[in-house]
Amino acid sequence: MNENFLWGGATAANQAEGGYNLDGRGLSSIDLCPIGEKRSAMIRGLSNQLTLDETQYYPSHKGIDFYTHYKEDIALFAEMGFKAYRFSISWTRIFPTGVEETPNEKGIEFYSNVIDECLKYGIEPIVTISHFDVPVALIEKIGSWRSREMIGYYLNLCRVLFERFKGRVTYWLPFNEINMILHAPFMAAGLVFEEGENQEQVKYQATHHELVASAMATKMAKEIDPNNQIGCMFAAGSTYPYTCNPDDVWQALQVDRENYFFVDIQARGYYPNYAWKFFEANNIELTIEDGDLALIKENTVDIIAFSYYNSRCVSADPNAASQAEGNLFASAKNPYLEASAWGWPIDPKGLRITLNEVYDRYQKPLFLVENGLGAVDEVTEKGEIIDDYRIDYLSKHMAEMVKAVDLDGVDLIGYLTWGAIDIVSASSGEMSKRYGFIYVDGDNEGNGTYKRSKKKSFDWYKEVIASNGKNL
């Protein structure tokens, strides 16, 4: 591995910060997603509940209280030897309703302090601008990303961030897992569907607005600071055919294209032919303004960033295999793979396959910015958290990653675990689904001391980083 390889971890504002109504922060889309049976309909855009319900518990309101613990948490990241820490901006901390002309200085101050803490320890801040987070006021006012007006409000946010943090942040990701708009459209983009409308039409029109916004943000970032590095970011994981039946192979190719569609545009700079044919077959007519396609063509990303949790498996025959669930993606159950406690397939070699497929396709530097295992951690009578299962998961994935780099020639600039510390799960809203090297004493209903404790994996990852991936 390159000696400058960026080892570290990642979190998201809506899963970690808490303080949802402190220091002028406005209501965000994720603040409306409760834990429990109503969460799925909400994150998929099937509920029009845009006000808080006092009978529900909303995990993002408290998160893990990173808003007040950030110095302690970043010091722990530094103790592990992090070279990079990825975090996201809460849009409504900067612009509470999204339409303000001037930013909320308290919000700017918070993120400036987080960046300063990172730089104090020599940690590279990796900033995601929009991570499952839009102002509720913009959903009510214009329908969020279904409206082209959203681009202007988003660029106001980008400009403030690029200007205020110039020279202190180099790596920027305009959108987190941009392809999740197809699978969790409210969580990903604040989309709420009306009865009877063509949902695919809405999702892909909103996608076009985000792709134009991404290109414009890339252009703006370079103009403000030519040293800025911009990466797209998508939820990755190669798709396997369930059998060697050509129908299954074709189905797997189609599913991969659905995910690569976004990156094809952001990295190559144009809508691929297969996309136009898909739109035609599904009665999707995009409103594309003059100059949009040229803008996309001229402002491609520098880096391909992605998350990897598992591969997928598909069959052309819906009755041919039982179903597994992984990161909100429907998938056939792969009989050759074990699964996590939440049913997500565990496929270390799939990471090597994915790294090679993505690099072969785009020939741009890659950045793995999420990889991890959600599991239930038990605290022993001695206060220890022996998470050997997490060490096993991560070490096997890292071993395949090292092979992709050292043996296959993949250009990978860094590896960030999800998460650096226990946080609220995006898909389920649970605290019990833990990912971090640092245990946070909180439960699914927000009870607990929120005290931080090191898990066994903490010292293990410290050694991984110190050895630059040699000691796994």
From TrEMBL:
MF term (GO), any: beta-glucosidase activity
SUPFAM superfamilies, A to Z: (Trans)glycosidases
GO biological process, any: carbohydrate catabolic process
Keyword terms of this UniProt record: Glycosidase, Hydrolase
Organism superkingdom: Bacteria
UniProt KW Hydrolase keyword: yes
PANTHER family in the cross-refs: 6-PHOSPHO-BETA-GLUCOSIDASE, GLYCOSYL HYDROLASE
Family under the similarity heading: Belongs to the glycosyl hydrolase 1 family.
Protein name, UniProt field: 6-phospho-beta-glucosidase
